[in-house]
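Thread title: Can someone regenerate the structure for this chain?

I was given the following input by a collaborator and told the matching structure tokens would be attached. They weren't. Posting the sequence so someone can regenerate them.
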Amino acid sequence: MKLVVLSDNRSKDGLLETEHGLCIYLETSTHKWLLDTGASDLFIRNAEKLNIALEEVDFVFISHGHADHIGGLASFLELNSKAKVFLSEYAIIERFFSSRAGKKEIGICLDLEKYGHRLSFIKKNMPVGSDVLIFSDSSDSFPAPEANRMLYSDKGDGIDQDDFKHELFICFGTEELLVYTGCAHKGLLNMLDAIERGTEKPVSKLIGGFHLPDSTESLLFETEEELSVIGTVLQTNYPHTHFITGHCTGSHAFNQLKEKLQERIVWFYTGYSIE
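Best answer:
Regenerated them for you:
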């Protein structure tokens, strides 16, 4: 298995570009995947610098409809003529908004007449071959991230709180799992709970954002106690899982989780790789 982060907020290499977006290239024993497409075509330029042939990608997985994860999709579809795209239909038909820096639209408008035949809409948990499982259903046993309260959607009947029906997450593997969470808007613990119930397989590695941004004087998110609870549940319930995070995970949340998880949690960044 080979994994390379092609787009993230951070980089350790001045040669690679960064943006507020997330895109990961993944090679399994059977296929080549693109996990989200960042906010723009930046991931394509980074892939060229890293000698990754995006023309050979077999499948694209879109975790949700926010532009920082789906914004580069049209550019990818122009470059790659064969890959099928897995996503929720809600990611395309709904409009999305954030009030974090004044209410602004954070979705995209994809040309369905041009690209619709490349899309495969996920309406329920669905396997892809024998080694991939896409989840649309999540647990609600734990609280969703506090920052969700600043996110909204419009299904055509007015703007309301985003219910994240457009969010999916994905598992790779037959015995031990690699999990990609996107932004984990449904809650990291809820996703892990759903995977545990749905597969009964251990999660070896989990990568993605946790949607735990740092609080400011005017915007308060998870408290110290709430972050400690998340860390304790991860430490206790998933003692063998390694967590790789970045994007929408704030530095304070990361440090709080690291107190519990120690070496089992690390940052990813543009150019981060696993082989």
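Residues 122 and 173 are 19 Å apart (CA to CA).
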